[in-house]
Amino acid sequence: MIRCLKGMKLNVSRLLFRSWYYLRIGYATYLTFLLGFATTVVTVYYLAINNIPALKSVFQSFFFFSMLAAAIGVPLSILAGYVHFKRSRAYSAEVDIAVEANPYYFRITPGKEKEIQVPFSIANIDLSLSMARKLGVLTPEIEQQFLQARERYMRLMKYGDYRISGSEPEANK
User: Fold this and answer.
1) Residues 116, 165 within the same domain
2) Is residue 3 classed as helix, strand or coil in its secondary structure?
């Protein structure tokens, strides 16, 4: 930790890892996209089109070729992105891997979730069960669903992960 202005502490390790993440996202998402497009257009135009007279007569200037490449490439890229997210199994596989890699999909997050949301959910389940019993509308199936959800929330509060049962040691978190 390094002291900064007005007594604030700077966590150098955290700053380095955050910077590394921002670098990867900025480079992979934006810089390589622009460089890749520019490299492809320049290479195709000056190594292929410029040396073939029939193509050179159609694409007389590099600017015209670049604009045509963008006019065709952007919609094709949008279509490919749409297919990737909506029509293929590729994105669902990515999400599956992200869920497996991120422990907070199954664990309680510190802060408002642990202090407010989970206790409120438990109280809400208790209140709903009580009201449904008093009104006589609670079926055994619905009661079982409420009790299973309550048990998961209780395990979440106790062990930090709802998948852990009471018989497992806390070291398995």
Assistant:
1) yes
2) strand
